[in-house]
Amino acid sequence: MKEKAASKKVMFLIYASLCFGMYFSRNTYFTFAGIGWMYRYLWVAGIFILNVCVFLANVDLDRAVYLVKLGGILCFPHVWTIFISTFIWISKASSLTVLRRGFFNELYAVTMILTMMGMIYVLGEDAIWCNLLAMLLPNVIILAGTIVEFGFSQYMSELQRIIVTFADEAGPAISQMEVHELTFSLGVYVVYLVYILQMKKTFFTVFLIAGAVFFFLSGFKRIGMLAVVVAAAVYIFVLLASGHGKRGRGFLIWSGIIVIVMMIGYVAIVDFGLLEYLERQAGVNLMGRDNLLAKVKEYFYFSPGYPGYGAGFTYELMNDLKGTGLHNDIVALYVDIGFWGFIFWMVFYVPVKVYLVSKLQDIKGGMLAIAYSVYLLVTAFTDNTMNYTFVTGTIALMIMAYGLDNSPSLKYSGNSSGENYEKLARRK
Question: Cα(263)–Cα(342) distance, rounded to whole angstroms?
């Protein structure tokens, strides 16, 4: 048993190292054949290869089938986007640039989900903490450089100020910690607090969660803060209203329907110009996003007859016009896949996905799934988080890893093939 525990720790460290390389690379890239390739996906490829090697050495079909089912559910919205976009691309005679952008954005998301699925197969629920450790280390490195440059007292003073003013005042030190994709990914772990506070914790997990909260606050994103509050409120509401699970699935479905109505209503609000009205009348600061929306509004309208332009269109349009993303992935999704494509995507992403997850796991697994889904959708109101593969991967990992080690039929042992972690370690 000691040898098995030691070999599992070795695998934990190997995965943590590979994930650290992925998170540390962030958006750096190299050019090959005239195309920019992100370094992060070289690390993803390494994790994927390791996953395959471990699976071939230790085949556990029950565990694999269970994770494939969950992975398929999580991949479906991305597959749907490619499917519906294919018809739109053909009908619109879309450029190769738009097609390539749309296809690869969804492919990267699917690849990240499958990569996390493999890591969970090997590490079980420990993959949650392995991923968080790897995510925190780049933040620690950035923090160290910031403290060397500005000093610890200035950093803490600016951190306090940004929290008190709700990001209205941000100094030069704290601004260096605004690492968009990593910050939004850490927000998923902050949402996880609503569940883990009820569970038995070790010093290691408390330390990591505290780090997630600290760096989430350091990278302060207003929409991220709002998203955490809303997601946690949804989890608590469903938990209490369902009688702690007795009527849970019904509440999950109805909560999902409410989310869909809100998403459709939001697109209508944007089309009708109500956001600009709020900015003028109520003093809501859209931080220039109204200018971006004004550009894209020339290309869509809110109607059942709106067909869309295909995945990748909005990204390339805004990149050509403004050199930046739309910072509103809800509207971007609607523009890309049209009225009915958008509704079907939302129907599957919230109530259907959450219901299926609750059937494969338990009701609390479904509650967490809807909380993570709401978190992503709220952040997508003002950012590009649907295309942040770190966020996509983290949400997928948190959903798939939930409760895995508490199920005797799914607890990984490697006995199906007569192999174990010890044998894999000796082979290496």
Answer: 10
Does this model's pTM top 0.70? yes
Contacts for 35-42 with beta carbons within 8 Å, 24 or more apart? Answer: 40/389, 41/108, 41/111
Q: Phi/psi zone of residue 284: left (φ > 0), alpha (ψ -120 to 50 degrees), beta?
A: beta
- Could you report the per-residue pLDDT of 308-342, keeping only the tens digit for each? 999 999 999 888 876 677 888 999 999 999 999 99
User: Residues near 309 by Cβ (< 8 Å), separated by ≥ 6?
Assistant: 88, 92, 94, 98, 299, 335, 336
CB burial of residue 164 (10 Å; 0-12, 13-18, 19+): exposed
**Burial 241-252, CB ≥16 within 10 A → b, else e:** ebeebeebbebb
For residue 53, give both structure tokens.
């090697």
Spatial separation of the C-alpha atoms in residues 154 and 174, rounded to whole Å = 9
Cα–Cα distance, 61 to 416 (Å, whole number):
7
Judge contact between 401 and 127, C-beta under 8 A. Answer: yes
Q: What is the DSSP letter of 304?
A: T
pLDDT digits (tens, 9 = 90+) for 375-409: 999 999 988 899 999 999 999 999 999 988 876 55
Q: Give, for 29, the enclosing helix (H) or strand (E).
A: strand 29-32
CB neighbour class for 64 (10 Å; exposed up to 12, middle 13-18, buried from 19): middle
d(CA 187, CA 168): 20
Q: Residue 241's pLDDT is what?
A: 83
Secondary structure of residue 91 in the 3-state scheme: helix
Rg, C-alpha atoms of the chain: 22
Q: What is the DSSP string of 30-81?
A: EEETTEEEETHHHHHHHHHHHHHHHHHHS--HHHHHHHHHHHHHHHHHHHHH
Tokens of 388: 């942040």
- Residue 171's SS3 state is coil
d(Cα 214, Cα 130) in Å, to the nearest integer? 18
**Angstrom distance (rounded) from CA 94 to CA 120:** 38
Q: How far apart are CA 356 and CA 66, in angstroms?
A: 12
